[in-house]
């Protein structure tokens, strides 16, 4: 299983996107807009067992909560993902590219 961060193919070459990395028991989410030191980059961690539910929540188009994780969809089409310690904010273009990738199953857990 690759643990490298990747983004939706719909994100193009820009540096404004939702990036995820699959690990054995967790999935990490980060915002590529972050420009500070890598060791303190904000991350939201989702248990791998809840990843499919998170994707379904995101695709639903409404704000909602999954355990300690909250997805807030904004009126402008952007969204925020909040974990217990961090909040990641995405523009409408970033969130749209992520959702298109979800629809194409680009973010499914590797078998």
Please give a structural write-up.
The chain has 111 residues and is α+β, with helices and mostly antiparallel strands. It has one domain: Transcriptional Co-activator pc4, Chain A (Roll). A 4-stranded antiparallel β-sheet has the order 1-2-3-4, with helices on one face. It has a 4-stranded antiparallel β-sheet with strand order 5-6-7-8.
Keywords:
4-stranded antiparallel β-sheet; 2 helices; globular; 30% strand; 111 residues; alpha+beta; Transcriptional Co-activator pc4, Chain A; 8 strands; single chain
Sum this structure up briefly.
With 111 residues, this protein is α+β, with helices and mostly antiparallel strands.
Count of extended strands:
8
- Describe the strand arrangement of the main beta sheet, using strand numbers: 1-2-3-4
Named at the architecture level, the CATH assignment is: Roll
Order of helices and strands: EEEEHEEEEH
State the helicity in percent bands.
10-25%
What's the structural domain tally?
A: 1
**Can you tell me the overall shape?**
globular
Biggest pleated-sheet summary: 4 strands, antiparallel
**Strand percentage:** 25-35%
Rg value? 13 Å
Q: How many DSSP H or I helices?
A: 2
Mean pLDDT: 93
